[in-house]
């Protein structure tokens, strides 16, 4: 079955043009002009991926993302304006997988959508047993690739696809420093350009989730000017 993309933006010109491009690529597209209608639609009938504008009537993209993340790990891409750097970072900290700055190239948006859907589909295949997987155990951390679950000291940590892949990339080689380019490749795939601050925001969100369960969590270390590493236990 065709994959479904939800587009949420109060600019009808964007909805029309992007919808046409995605439909030509074989996707099913559902459009919404405000956050409230999108929330109702997506809770009743989930999509495979959502593209959200930040500034919308009735419910903005930030609040919509928060409500979606309370129930779903569905991949989300934010659309932001050039003067909304704070909103970009906040969106990533709330759990967005990626962001694109307006005005944007539809080709770039299509590439980002394809990359996120490929990663998400790989996770689904692993959880259904289509792809062989297993457990990654590092001290108090357990990552189950087949179920896309993360356990820290016996407690579940809810991670998005991007966050899970980042933790996995670091935990695979404890003590080894991963620079931001390596983490971008691990989380997004090669040949996808993502700003360095995107990785920094994802790492901050991952730490926040772990510290909500364990305020002494300090396994992901920052080496300023270099990158990150997972501290050996």
UniProtKB/TrEMBL annotation:
Domain of life: Bacteria
The keyword Protease belongs to this UniProt entry's keyword annotation: no
Keyword Oxidoreductase: no
Pfam families, A to Z: Response_reg (PF00072), Trans_reg_C (PF00486)
Coiled coil: none
Modified residues (4-aspartylphosphate): 53
Domain Response regulatory: residue ranges: 4-117
PANTHER family tied to this protein: DNA-BINDING DUAL MASTER TRANSCRIPTIONAL REGULATOR RPAA, REGULATOR OF RPOS
Protein name (database record): Response regulator transcription factor
Species, as recorded: Roseococcus pinisoli
């Amino acid at each position: 079955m065709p994959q479904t993309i939800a587009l949420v933006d109060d600019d009808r010109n964007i909805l029309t043009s992007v919808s046409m491009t995605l439909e030509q690529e074989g996707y099913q597209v559902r459009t919404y002009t405000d956050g409230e209608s999108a929330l109702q639609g997506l809770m009743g009938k989930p999509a495979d991926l959502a593209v959200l504008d930040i500034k919308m009537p009735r419910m903005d993209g930030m609040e919509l993302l928060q409500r979606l993340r309370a129930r779903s790990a569905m991949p989300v891409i934010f659309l932001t304006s050039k003067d909304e750097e704070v909103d970009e970072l906040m969106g990533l900290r709330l759990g967005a997988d990626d962001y694109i700055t307006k005005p944007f190239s539809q080709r770039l948006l299509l590439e980002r959508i394809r990359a996120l859907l490929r990663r998400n589909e790989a996770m689904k295949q692993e959880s259904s047993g289509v792809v062989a997987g297993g457990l990654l155990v590092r001290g108090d951390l357990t990552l189950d690739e087949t179920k896309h679950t993360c356990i820290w000291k016996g407690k579940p940590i809810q991670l998005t696809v991007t966050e899970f892949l980042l933790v996995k990339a670091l935990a695979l080689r404890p003590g080894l420093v991963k620079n931001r380019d390596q983490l971008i490749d691990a989380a997004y795939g090669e040949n996808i350009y993502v700003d360095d601050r995107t990785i920094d925001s994802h790492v901050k969100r991952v730490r926040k989730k772990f510290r909500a369960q364990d305020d002494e969590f300090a396994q992901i270390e920052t080496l300023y000017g270099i990158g990150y590493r997972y501290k050996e236990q």
